[in-house]
């Protein structure tokens, strides 16, 4: 079990429960919007620790994910320098489908009495009631949600656009303030093959170290 973190400087840990965040996803690959969301969650929620969890066997994805080894390595490059952040491999080590409810249950046992937060984007919130055992998730953690642009696919432009409409969501959630970023892992994979440089499309979408890793390991290359 990982030791519990110290409270942030200036905060009396005894005065409130630990605040523990869970930020899960395929991270295939992790991109700049993921990084910005992690930063927003750490700051705005006052998290003592944020667990970054690449998913294992993703029950909701039809495509085969890049190997866990690569996704964990890219997460380390994308998030590893953020304070109070842990790259957590438990879901890729778990046998069978990977469910958020199970991970939250484990985190609750590891941090007794902690306040748990599930960090996610607006697109995931809109699909939340399709999740396996979603009422358990809602009972275990506060949903912390950042809005996303309506256009985030491979052909989306990077200028700020219209944000997703969350007015019809009948679930309690806490909104995270974050600039709209029209970035998705789909867009990253679609642009692989372009030169990795400060002006390249790939470097705009992912942190420089992740772009270099993708190039070095020839990830997401399209068949000739």
Q: Note the run of SSEs as H and E.
A: EHEHEHHEHHEEHHH
* Mean pLDDT over all positions: 85
Strand count: 6
Compute the number of helices.
9
Largest sheet: 6 strands, parallel
Strand content: 5-15%
Distance between the termini: 45 Å
Poorly predicted spans: 1-11
Percent of residues in helical segments? 25-40%
**Computed Rg:** 17 Å
Structural class: alpha/beta
Strand order of the largest sheet: 3-2-1-4-5-6
Describe this structure in words.
This protein is of the alpha/beta class and 224 residues long. It contains nine helices and six strands. A six-stranded parallel sheet has the order 3-2-1-4-5-6, with helices on both faces. α4 runs parallel beside α6. The N terminus is likely disordered.
Compact summary:
This protein is α/β, with parallel strands linked by helices.
Structure characteristics:
9 helices; 224 residues; disordered N terminus; 6 strands; 33% helix; 6-stranded parallel β-sheet; alpha/beta
Structural topology:
Layout: E1 19-25, H1 32-44, E2 49-54, H2 68-79, E3 85-87, H3 90-93, H4 100-110, E4 115-121, H5 122-126, H6 134-140, E5 142-146, E6 174-176, H7 185-191, H8 201-205, H9 208-216
Parallel strand pairs: 1-2, 1-4, 2-3, 4-5, 5-6
Helix pairs in contact: 2-9, 4-6
């Amino acid at each position: 079990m990982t030791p519990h973190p110290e409270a942030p400087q200036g905060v009396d840990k005894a005065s409130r429960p630990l605040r523990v965040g869970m930020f899960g996803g395929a991270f295939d690959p992790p991109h700049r919007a993921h990084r910005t969301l992690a930063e927003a969650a750490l700051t705005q929620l006052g998290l003592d620790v944020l667990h970054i969890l690449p998913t294992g066997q993703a029950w909701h994805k039809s495509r085969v994910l890049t190997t866990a080894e690569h996704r964990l390595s890219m997460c380390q490059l994308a998030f590893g320098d953020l304070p109070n952040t842990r790259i957590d491999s438990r879901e890729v080590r778990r046998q069978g489908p990977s469910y958020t409810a199970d991970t939250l249950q484990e985190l609750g046992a590891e941090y007794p009495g902690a306040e748990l937060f599930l960090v996610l984007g607006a697109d995931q919130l809109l699909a939340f009631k399709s999740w396996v055992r979603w009422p358990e998730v809602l009972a275990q953690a506060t949903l912390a949600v950042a809005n996303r642009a309506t256009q985030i696919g491979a052909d989306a432009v990077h200028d700020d656009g219209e944000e997703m409409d969350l007015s019809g969501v009948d679930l309690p959630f806490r909104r995270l303030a974050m600039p709209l970023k029209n970035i998705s892992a789909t867009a990253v994979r679609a642009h692989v093959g372009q030169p990795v440089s400060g002006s390249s499309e790939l470097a705009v979408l992912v942190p420089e170290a992740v772009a270099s890793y993708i190039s070095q390991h020839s990830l997401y290359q399209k068949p000739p």
